[in-house]
Design brief:
There is one protein chain. The protein has four domains: 11-181, Beta-Lactamase, CATH 3.30.450.40; 196-306, Heat Shock Protein 90 (2-Layer Sandwich); 315-399, no CATH class; 419-473, Arc Repressor Mutant, subunit A. 42% of the residues lie in helices and 20% in strands. The protein has helices at residues 11-26, 34-49, 90-98, 116-122, 152-188, 196-203, 220-234, 264-273, 275-283, 323-335, 355-358, 388-399, 419-429, 434-441, 445-459, 464-473, and strands at 53-59, 65-73, 84-86, 102-104, 126-134, 137-146, 209-212, 238-245, 249-257, 287-292, 298-306, 315-319, 339-340, 350-352, 364-367, 378-382. Strand 7 (209-212), helix 7 and strand 8 form a beta-alpha-beta unit. Helix 6 runs parallel beside helix 7 (220-234) and helix 13 (419-429) packs across helix 15 (445-459).
């Protein structure tokens, strides 16, 4: 590895390192096993760049920890003390959590190093830790240790290698998920493993079916919705049907003829036939449209579902205590163009009405109710009257670090009240005078005034009426 360069990058050294990095990247061609990809990269870094050792950790599916999957050079054991690193712990966990690279050519002097004597004894000077980031989240971390300071040229090349590795890992992980999905379908529906187009053709035996795109494995729930739709269409005068596999969605388009003119009454009757399909499609983030055809003597049915595991937009976590609220906001989120993720973390916006869940995220969109105050973690407040456009606006505002639907102080910071202050403001809102409040709470009247003055200061309200309005709007009292 080259010595550190002064001033501008050494163009000759950079060109050579880029060629070496290209050889490492080429070694990943055709590999669809994440662990094997990681091993080839760490082996290549040690061989091509004379690193002391290199390691790659991959983020576990639950995103609570990272697993060491490859280690080359001075250390090859995968079962040591760093075999699993909690998310946010040590330098590796922090790099994964914050997605911020870290570079140092004085490793033994770093305060976070757990064993400085080891670094000195082994002569380890350089350390580079890079997050392998896709769609805003880390899928892993690459760490390189060297016995010489790392040159600027090498760090430029290392960043490019990380980009290539991330793409290779993303493709490999997607391939693994598809294989697992196919195995799940095969095990759950034995003897019924025919492609969806063949199953639809068997149900629509009097209808011309067209297949557009390459068929891909589907989950049992998605397949079931399409087959149920075909069952309904088979009982109608379906004259045309097209199944389309797009990049992110699968759609089934059908045309059904009608002897008489297609009226509003007939539209409602047809809609009732597809009622359960509309409900199921909505739960999976899909849509079902029924529209009059040309001349109003036919109607068109278009069922669209997102491809399982495909990101259709920015991610949003939803964790409502009521199943009805969970379903309603899930449907709303899909209409707003979000991908609903059950494995939300602290960096993903979370829509919830559960105070316990609200403590797990710094980006909380609170579902307002009549029985609960808005928690201090909330950055937005909304209810079932919200539209898809408003939801997009609320999430975007929260992601910018601002508040949406919540009154804040002029400094932009939401002021929280103590339990006693909320209790006094609640009684004040009921029309009780200071001495009545004091008698009710068995405290002195001066103590009541003290708490009220604190509330005015916290909320920067000029009058008690302004303070009462503020706490009611934010749901702190009912």
């Amino acid at each position: 590895m080259a010595e550190p360069a002064l001033g501008l990058l050494n163009s000759t050294r950079l060109l050579f390192d880029l060629q070496q990095g290209n050889l490492v990247a080429q070694s990943l061609s055709g590999c669809l096993e994440p662990e094997e990809i990681a091993r080839r990269v760490t082996d290549g870094l040690v061989e091509k760049f004379d690193c002391a050792f290199a390691r790659i950790w991959l983020v576990e599916p639950d995103r609570t920890s990272l697993k060491l999957v490859a280690s080359s050079g001075m250390y090859t054991n995968l079962n040591g003390s760093f075999a699993r690193v909690p998310m946010g712990a040590f330098k590796v966990g922090k790099i994964a959590q914050n997605c911020i690279p870290f570079l140092s050519n004085r490793l033994a002097e770093e305060t976070w190093v757990r064993d400085r004597d080891w670094a000195i004894a082994k002569g380890i000077q350089g350390f580079a830790g890079y997050p392998l980031v896709t769609s805003g989240d880390a899928v892993g971390v690459l760490a390189v240790f060297s016995q010489q300071p790392m040159a600027s040229e090498f760090l430029e090349v290392l960043q490019g290698i990380c980009t290539t590795v991330t793409i290779a890992l993303e493709n490999a992980l997607l391939y693994q998920r598809e294989k697992q999905s196919q195995r799940s379908i095969s095990s759950s529906t034995p003897g019924n493993c025919a492609p969806l187009s063949e199953q639809l053709a068997n149900l629509l035996n009097h209808t011309r079916l067209i297949l557009v795109g390459t068929e891909r494995p589907l989950t049992a729930s998605v397949t079931c919705i399409f087959l149920r739709t075909a069952e309904v269409l088979s009982n109608q005068a379906c004259i045309y049907c097209r199944l389309t596999y797009d990049i992110q969605t699968i759609s089934l388009e059908a045309m059904v003829s009608s002897v008489a003119e297609y009226t509003q009454e007939q539209h409602e009757e047809v809609g009732s036939l597809f009622g359960d399909i509309l409900f199921a499609a909505s739960c999976l983030g899909g849509t079902l449209q029924i529209d009059p055809g040309a001349g109003r003597k036919a109607f068109q049915v278009l069922l669209t579902l997102p491809y399982p595991g495909c990101m259709i937009g920015s991610r949003l976590g939803i964790a409502c205590r009521s199943p009805i609220l969970q379903m309603a906001f899930t449907h709303l989120a899909y209409l707003a163009g979000f991908t609903v993720r059950p494995d939300f973390g602290s960096t993903i916006p979370l829509l919830t009405d559960d105070p316990t869940q609200a403590q797990t995220s710094h980006l909380v969109l609170w579902v307002a109710t009549q029985t609960q105050a808005v928690p201090k973690q909330a950055k937005a407040k909304l209810d079932l009257s919200i539209t898809p456009g408003q939801l997009r606006e609320a999430v975007g505002t929260v992601m910018e670090g601002k508040f949406w639907g919540i009154e804040v102080s002029p400094e932009g910071k939401l002021q929280s009240l103590s339990d006693r202050e909320q209790e006094i403001m609640s009684l004040l809102a009921q029309g009780l005078r200071d001495r009545d409040i004091a008698k009710h709470l068995i405290i002195s009247e001066s103590t009541v005034k003290f708490h009220i003055n604190n509330v005015l200061a916290k909320l920067r309200a000029k009058t008690r009426y302004q303070a009462i309005h503020h706490v009611i709007v934010n749901g702190w009292i009912q």
